[in-house]
Amino acid sequence: MSVPQDFFYSKSHEWVSLSEGVVTVGITDFAQSQLSDLTFVELPAVGASFAAGDEAAVVESVKAAADVYAPVAGEVIEVNEVLEDAPETINADAFGAGWLFKLKVVDEAEVDGLMDADSYEEICPQQ
Amino acid sequence: MSDGYSLVFEAPVDYAKGLAFQRRLLAARQADLIPDTVLLMQHTPTVTLGNRGRDHYLLKSESEYAAMGIELFQVERGGDVTFHGPGQWVLYPILYLGGREADAHGYLFNLEEVAIRALHQFGVEGFRREGKSGAWTAMGKLAAIGFRLKRWVTFHGMSFNVENSLRGFETIVPCGLEGEPVTTLQKLLGNECPSMGQVGETMLDVFEDVMGRQLERFRAGDGLPDCSRVQAPPVD
């Protein structure tokens, strides 16, 4: 299972990519594979503010529902509206087109506190 | 050395009380105060709608359900509408899935596997159906699944029809699957049907194999137990 090297990761299996004070957040390939085919995504409202660890979104497959957490504190400036009609985009491209939302970060140092790809792979199941 | 606990309730549990107990265990598991814990219980008659549950799959009005003695709940699990009642086991695993021990097959597949292997122990062929989750038999669907993950700990789970009346299912479109029959182990096996106790033990045995966890087994008396024992387990 691939884990991009240039992203950061949370223990709850979100990925984070930082660029100019904004993070893009999605769920990892491991997370999508555990949930199987996604059928619904509940995205946060643009303008909503989260602390690190707050529940920010819900992803659902036919029989499962899972919460997605804000990996760092920030304000939602954009959500991936493609997912409303095509939640399966997450299964197809978890680290790319299947991103969930973008946060304007309160403190960039919080991103450094997340795991790098090697540390994240350590906590994922060996297959 | 066990990897977790199981707790079996012999008397039917009110749905709201069972759910409150699951939520307590969920919080305790998230905080690592308890190991993986599996609840096995029956409910008093209840219809539940999952997150995306569509209420046009409810075939009665609220007052008609009340008159039939069936409680209605909208809950946070995945999946659509289902019925619970005495004679049906519900398995509520409170498991941390986010770590190294997670299984590559995925949790949904594993829950189906528990039902299929349990059926096999009683000589019934159970199988999966493409695009329809749960465990199926020649006479219809026997096990239904709907769960939620919070911080990668599971709650809600799977129901398994043993000797329950199917009347409750006649008041809904189970899982939103129109025209698909629901069945019980009793209907499949008649007089050969094992007791609830035997079926419950078998489900836990099979669960240990499929999920790769050895469970230290506890029993509750009537109603909810004093769960302080579960929350503050004895140290080996």
Description of the molecule:
The complex is a heterodimer of chains A (127) and B (236). By secondary structure, chain A is of the alpha+beta class. In chain A, 20% of the residues lie in helices and 35% in strands. In chain A, strand 6 and strand 7 form a beta hairpin. Chain A is globular and about 35 Å long. Chain A starts with 7 loop residues before the first strand and ends with a helix. Chain B has helices spanning 15-30, 62-67, 107-121, 185-189, 196-211, 228-231, and strands at residues 4-9, 36-41, 46-49, 71-74, 81-84, 88-94, 127-129, 132-137, 140-150, 153-161, 215-220. In chain B, strand 1 (4-9), helix 1 (15-30) and strand 2 form a beta-alpha-beta unit. In chain B, helix 3 (107-121) crosses helix 5. Chain B starts with a strand and ends in a 5-residue tail after the last helix. Chains A and B meet through helix 1, strand 6 and strand 7 of A and strand 9 of B. Strand 7 (64-69) of chain A pairs parallel with strand 9 (140-150) of chain B.
Instruction: Supply the number of structural domains of chain B.
Output: 1
**How much β-strand is present in the residues of chain B?**
25-35%
Order of helices and strands of chain B: EHEEHEEEHEEEEHHEH
Q: Which CATH class of chain B applies here? A: Alpha Beta
Q: Give unreliable regions of chain B as ranges.
A: 222-226, 228-236
SS class of chain A = alpha+beta
Number of strands of chain A: 9
Give the overall form of chain B. Answer: globular
